[in-house]
Amino acid sequence: MRHHESLPPTPRHPLRLAAALLCLGLGLAGCGGTDGAAQAQAGPSGGAATTPAAPASPSPAPSKAAPSPSRPPAKSSAQPSSAPDGPLSGRTVVIDPGHNPRNHLHTAAINRQVDIGTGRKECDTTGTATNGGYAEAEFTLDVAHRLRDLLRAQGAKVLLTYDGDREFGPCVDERARIGNDAHADAVVSVHADGSAVGNRGFHVILPARVRGGGADTSKIVAPSRDLGTRIAGLFVRSTGSSPSNYVGGKTGLDVREDLGGLNLSTVPKVFIECGNMRDPKDAALLTSPGWRQKAARGIADGISSYLKG
Fold it and tell me: Which one of 30, 135, 231, 276 is separated from 20 by 20 to 30 angstroms, measured CA to CA?
């Protein structure tokens, strides 16, 4: 979700050329649509990001993540998946499923402050949930599994920052470090937003140019923008969803400088907020296994397009 690191978002920087990139650079139709919803002012959704979203009573359709065995929040035990030969052979992709379904049981641990380069923030947050109780953390892990399978089929080596294998976290700085240590060719962090009813659509978050403390994004800003623009355009084509009507000036792209997962990355990385879990129409999509497969396909197509150049 957009406020997942528990601080108010920085002022928006609408990208006037991004819509043209989506339509002209990728040759796609339907860019910039809003499903008829009026544009709203972006902002926190009244605590959706910071109120623990207990993952009890999830919607019947989605499958629940398997219980995680107890272990300390050390380095993720997920290993790169073996892959067949294919167009992405030799390329490494890290998928970062946002949050953890058990974070709400470990509030002291996830509230611990960590360095994000430009300041300090909470290790992680609980994420949001639909009104029916389907947790963002369950959504992100499900999409991550689907995305992993699609990329492996193309020959990519795929690593998840966590795979239901720990009680909470990882912290945002460790999530960045996993991608860095893997020397990933691309990293995508999967999320879903928690905003007001009527705020609909997806957006891709790009790293701002940040330099301070342990953060220096100067080398990844341009390739991350390329990665994010391709994902946004192909997400539209795969899902039929429109770019956000409340973030990014209807371009589907947003730039932020307050996210540790981006600030601390040394490899191309973006976040994608796949929709707004608090809006009933978006929630109906996010809780649909068929739509989640389309979402994974759109993200995978964007990554593949970026890696193939």
Answer: 276
